[in-house]
Every structure is written in C-alpha cells, then in structure tokens.
C-alpha cells in the first residue's frame, strides 16, 4: 500500500505548519509523506522557528522546506490545519483535523518551545494513528 500524504496547512506557512512538516519528516517519514502550504505564504520560514528547531533538535528546516501555496502541493490524503482562526479553503482529502495551536510568532522562546513540543507530540500520535489504522485512508 502506498504511503499517505499528510499536508499541514496554515495561513502563512511560515511557522507551525513548517514545524509540523519538519517533525513529520524526522519522526514519521517512513509512514507518510509530508508537506505544508498556506493560503498567503510568507517570504520565508519564521526565523525563530528555524533557530529553535536547529538549536534544540538539530533540524535545519531551510535545507528542504520553504513557504508554498496550496496549489503547489499535491492533494493530500490527510489535511491538518494548525488553528489559524480562519476557515481554510476546501481541499479534497480522506481525513481532516484541526490541531488548534496558537501562533507563537513574535512570542518568547518559551512559547515557541512549547508549541514545538506540542507539535512533536501530535506528529507522534498521528504516526501511531496511521500505523494502527485509526485513520482510514
């Protein structure tokens, strides 16, 4: 069976969705393919997200990731919205959920690190749900 594609979506595709894509590549790359996109992408990944993921976890998101539009990714099997407080546009998918995470942009490192840790835990749970067939695709 082919691996499912999981897309992480938020408005600017510069912080939470990029962190989720990075964690997915590291922690679940053997279970699903991951990508991220946004409705109004920023010019670059949030510098604090880049710095903290590199410093704390050895992950350099700038090597393989950049902000993208929704039309720049293939249709996902699973769509994860990050909790942007806006309605994301319709994208066909087999499973959709919202993680309801606040945007840490402009906040302290402690706030960023909390969001990074929460996303890491969610990625692990997502991996397990896919592996255990709890999310049907």
Topology readout:
Blueprint: E1 5-9, H1 16-28, E2 33-37, H2 47-57, E3 78-81, E4 95-98, H3 109-131
Parallel strand pairs: 1-2, 1-3, 3-4
Helix pairs in contact: 1-3, 2-3
Structure summary:
This protein is an alpha/beta fold. The chain is 34% helix and 13% strand. Helix 1 (16-28) links the parallel strand 1 (5-9) and strand 2.
Instruction: Tell me the number of helical segments per DSSP (H or I, 4 or more residues long).
Output: 3
Strand order of the largest sheet: 2-1-3-4
Mean pLDDT across the residues is 93
Distance between the termini: 11 Å
Biggest sheet statistics = 4 strands, parallel
Strand content: 5-15%
Task: Note the overall shape.
Answer: globular
Order of helices and strands: EHEHEEH
Question: If you compute it from the alpha carbons, what radius of gyration comes out, rounded to the nearest whole angstrom?
Answer: 14 Å
Which structural category do the helix and sheet elements fall into?
Answer: alpha/beta
Give a count of the beta strands, DSSP E runs of length 2 or more: 4
How much helicity do the residues have?
25-40%
Runs in which pLDDT lies below 50 for 5 or more consecutive residues are: none
């Amino acid at each position: 069976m082919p691996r499912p594609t999981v897309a992480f979506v938020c408005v600017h595709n510069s912080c939470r969705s990029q962190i989720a894509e990075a964690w997915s590549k590291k922690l679940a790359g053997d279970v699903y393919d991951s990508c991220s996109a946004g409705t109004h992408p920023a010019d670059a990944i949030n510098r604090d997200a880049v710095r903290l993921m590199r410093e704390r976890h050895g992950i350099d998101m700038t090597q393989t990731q950049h902000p993208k539009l929704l039309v720049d990714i293939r249709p996902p099997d699973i769509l994860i919205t990050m909790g942007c407080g806006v309605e994301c546009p319709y994208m066909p998918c087999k499973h959709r959920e919202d993680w309801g995470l606040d945007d840490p942009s402009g906040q302290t490192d402690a706030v960023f690190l909390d969001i990074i840790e929460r996303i890491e835990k969610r990625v692990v749970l997502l991996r397990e749900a896919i592996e255990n067939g709890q999310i049907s695709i």
